[in-house]
Amino acid sequence: MRRTTSALAVAGVLAAAALVGTPASAPAAPARDGRAAQQVHREIDYVALGDSYSAGPLVKAPPGKPTFRPDPQACARSWNNYPAFVADYLDVSSYTDVTCSGAQVADFSSPQGGENPYAAPQLDALSADTDLVTIGIGGNDYGLFGSLVDTCGRLAQEHPDEATPCRDHYTVDGVDTKARDARAIRTRIAGAVAAVHEAAPEADVYVVGYPQLMPLGAHTCDAVGFAAGDVAWGDHIEDLLNRSLRLGATSQDATYVDTQTISRGHDACAGLKAWINGSLVVFTGPKAGANFHPNRAGERGMAKAVFGVVTGRPVSKAPTNANAAPPADAIVLNPAYPG
Questions:
Q1: What does pTM read for this prediction?
Q2: Whether 52 is catalytic
Q3: Among 77, 85, 211, 262, which residue's beta carbon has the most beta carbons within 10 A?
């Protein structure tokens, strides 16, 4: 039977208590069944799965670290992505990060890289010893996000007098194909979560949603470059995607982590407060990151959302360090893929 009381919540509360202190009146942590009842601070084996929003391409690294982790570099995985902050906040005993830019759900069970694979199937990182799994996937399936980024800005320039040129472009025979695909991702997420449970039967599984990309309402900004109506439409597509992630997760006894709420007001039009870059890639400084992807502040904010759900504590109780610092002896470097 799937465990119903989170071992990670117990261990996470202990980790948070060590950092911020626990009131004398705090309730005792709930009991666990099986071996997980014995888990204490640091005894968490954590595996992160996902795509570029989890990998954090180009996100500014901690001092002394290269921009990309080397295992492999092709995944463009940052040392300061949200899984690294989560591993830090929970002070885990083992931290394996196989998130990879460009990943789709199919890359959970197949090598990533097509005819020239460079990364093992992500599910290979899981085992019966895994205690915690985060999953951040779905935006690349059906080309959902990538084609919007490539197309909507161009169409706004080509049709400056049209309110929704991108939505109109993707509406075929009266069907909004992006909305259709965002809803269809639910089935793929459910299948991915079921496969994770099979590979890591003792793990607590969290599906992490996508943060707020676009400003709320029908307005735009130079950083985004979409027509105003397409900004509102794009936000609707993201809402549908996150709904699919939530429903896919809960249908398979996983927990959904909402990152939209914590990131509102930090969208790509938020200027200095933005957690999401706009249409331009940023290569240096604290805002470094891929276009329409989280920067370091965004990855840290997503980690706080995960921390809050896993531990049951307010996100304000998460550590405030600017760079992720998971225990050095906990970091597992992925072996080179022979493909």
A1: 0.88
A2: yes
A3: 77
